[in-house]
Amino acid sequence: MKKICVCAVTFLIPLVLQACGGGGSAGVVSQEQKTATVVFATTTSDATVKLRGISVVATLPDGVTVATKAGTDEISSGALQGVGQVATGTYSAATRQISIVNMPTGNDLAIGPFARVICDVTPGKTLQDSQFTSIVPLDFQPTGPQGIDLTLTVTPKISVSFGY
After folding, report:
1. Close Cβ partners of 127 (under 8 Å, ≥ 6 residues apart)
2. Type and span of the H or E element at 14
3. Could you tell me which residues are beta bridge partners of residue 136?
4. How does residue 30 score in pLDDT terms, banded at 50, 70 and 90?
5. Does residue 37 surpass a pLDDT of 60?
6. Which of 23, 107, 149, 162 is at a distance of 20 to 30 A from 126, taking alpha carbons?
7. Alpha carbons 57 and 151: distance in angstroms, whole number
């Protein structure tokens, strides 16, 4: 019985001391979000779908902005990257609306990511993945060969990663 008590005490003392810590969180520094990289993509269950172009309009959450070319709403080339092709876009700070068009010449777009937008996070603001993944585009227009409307076959998907 003594051996069991000694073993139990020997095991419990380090746990109790560790739980006491050292008081306070002065050594803990939380990192502040600086950027949010938003990936716009397409999904479909039809493997035969060929995309010839796509456009999307969405409202970004409060707390992010997108860099534009001086004096215009055109998204700067450093903030918008086409995936596999060149994408163009506009951003309105007043409405937080972003509009992206990806219309390649001669090639089909692959199903999946078609644009990445690097947003700046407002200092002091902390954003959640769900604020981006729950965005329902105001307009989504996937286009197939000969301008065929693919909105019933292809759906949008939005994901985000944060930079610190």
Report:
1. 33, 36, 61, 63, 64, 121, 160, 162
2. helix 2-20
3. none
4. low
5. yes
6. 23
7. 14
pLDDT at residue 14 tops 80: no
CB 88 within 8 A of CB 74: yes
Distance CA 158, CA 42 (A): 9
Q: What domains appear along the chain, each with residue ranges and CATH number?
A: 35-158 (2.60.40.680)
What strands lie across the sheet with 97-102, from one edge to the other? 88-92, 97-102, 53-59, 139-143
Residue 46's identity, in one-letter code, is D
Compute the 3-state secondary structure of the chain and give helix, strand, coil in percent, each to the nearest 5: 15, 40, 45
**Residue written as token pair 């069991």:** 4
Q: By the 8 A CB rule, do 138 and 98 touch? A: no
